[in-house]
Design a protein that fits this description.
441 residues, 2 domains, 13-stranded antiparallel beta sheet, three-stranded mixed beta sheet, 8 helices
Length: 441
């Protein structure tokens, strides 16, 4: 099927080829198995960082540098490329340990500012999901729902230094006799407050459109009828996993910029899907890899963690992530210098094809075309908008560059690489099996 997959640059939005990259996924081309003899090691790069001699460029800056110097010379001179992304990332949340009350309580349920928590871990450990909403939220009963407040907003308030109301209950035991606690609490009062996001930093994503005759409210924002607009969500050439598309340096243990503080890649993210069609540079043509990330919430800032309301859909948390890419050889610098014009995304109908999980793409378009503010689909001019902030992604890459250049941020070697195309990992759909009633006794 490789010959059926259009290459980056072959597609013009005035005449989009249609194919189904979601169901027919060939093995990656041999040409994307990149990686030459190492020119540098991560240890050597860290030594240069400590000495203040490392050349650190953002993912935007390295593009011109490679153009001017060539890949070979650029690989010799550049030590680190910094990336960034800032966008709503729904699979996010935080876990907390609030210490023991007097008398002790074994929390079985509760709320932070009216937003439900999950307490099925231990006596005073609990988790708050970014998409959780209060029980009395009308949701979509009045359509479209506003979803004015939820878990993401609570997290933003906490990192802003505000106190929130903790209300918890318990059934009582001999060693944990208390049955209720209601108090104001802030990050300063907690033993641990840890941001833990099971799926962030999506490597590429779809462009959402609406072929129906009415507006629809989705996690891609409001999509207007009859191809009224096209929404996308990626920092493109600044996005971490697009600058290391084959996961050569990003893996478990990679130190990152997370929410304004330091964090780490904890595992590959949920729905990690490395076995997808890719360009000759290894860039995926469809949604692919993801990362699970973790970090100390007490270090973070509301500038980079923002509660987000999505009309008619729900609440979310917009997260800022920046990942440093060590330049080990020519292939690394070529991939880190990827341009928006070399990154393609699929145009998908969110009115029927996406919700019904039917195959089909209306075609693909480059991020360079998307960022121009208008694309053409079947001859119709369609305005575009991004849910991801390119300006904030640029700022994150710049902040991370400054940290590294000052010697305040050293790179870490991952202890395990993210599963690649050869892993055979493909996300499964939910198997729905009939549930038979038990035989009467």
């Amino acid at each position: 099927m490789d010959h059926d997959i259009p290459r980056a640059g072959d597609i013009h939005t005035k005449s989009i080829r249609r194919y189904d990259p979601f169901h027919d996924q060939p093995a990656p081309r041999k040409g994307v198995s990149l990686g030459r003899t190492l020119m540098k090691t991560l240890q050597a790069i860290n030594e240069k960082i400590k000495q203040g001699k490392a050349l650190v460029l953002t993912a935007e800056e390295v593009i011109d540098f490679v153009d001017q110097k060539g890949a070979k010379k650029a690989a010799q001179e550049v030590d680190v490329v910094t990336t960034g992304t800032f966008a709503p990332m729904c699979s996010s949340g935080a876990y907390f340990n609030v210490g023991h009350s007097k008398p002790r309580i074994k929390i079985s349920g509760g709320f932070l500012n009216g937003v439900p928590i999950y307490a099925g871990f231990a006596a005073v450990d609990f988790i708050l999901g970014a998409t959780a909403i209060p029980d009395d939220d009308p949701r979509n009963a009045v359509y479209p729902g506003k979803f004015a407040y939820g878990g993401g907003h609570v997290i933003e308030e906490l990192v802003s230094g505000k106190d929130v109301v903790l209300t918890v209950s318990a059934y009582g035991t001999d060693c944990y006799p208390r049955k209720k606690v209601e108090t104001r609490i802030g990050l300063k009062d907690m033993n641990e407050a840890v941001l833990f996001n099971p799926r962030n930093g999506y490597q590429n994503y779809n462009v959402g459109v609406n072929l129906s005759d009415r507006p629809i409210y989705t996690y891609m924002g409001v999509l207007q009828p009859r191809l009224g607009n096209a929404n996308y969500s990626s920092a493109g050439q600044l996005s971490p996993l697009l600058c290391d598309p084959l996961y050569r340096t990003i893996g478990v243990g990679t130190r990152i910029f997370l929410g304004g503080g330091e964090g780490y890649v904890a595992w590959h993210g949920t729905q990690h899907n490395p076995s997808v069609p890719r360009t000759d540079l290894g860039v995926p043509r469809v949604p692919a890899g993801t990362i699970a990330v973790i970090g100390d919430l007490k270090q973070m800032s509301p500038r980079w963690l923002r509660g987000t309301s999505i009309s008619g859909y729900g609440v979310n948390l917009s997260v800022g992530i920046g990942v440093p890419i060590p330049i080990l050889d020519e292939d690394m610098v070529r991939q880190a210098a990827v341009r928006d014009k070399d990154i393609v995304a699929q145009i998908v109908d969110f009115s029927h094809v996406y919700p019904q999980r039917e195959p089909g793409s209306l075609g693909e378009v480059t991020y360079a075309e998307l960022r121009q503010g208008e694309i053409s689909i079947d001859g119709k001019r369609v305005p575009t908008a991004s849910l991801s902030s390119y300006a904030k992604a640029r700022e994150i890459a710049s902040v991370l560059k400054e940290w590294i250049s000052r010697g305040d941020f050293l790179l870490t070697e991952c202890v395990q690489r993210l599963p690649g195309a050869d892993s055979g990992i493909v996300p499964q759909s939910l198997p729905e099996r009939p549930i038979r009633a038990k035989n009467p006794v």
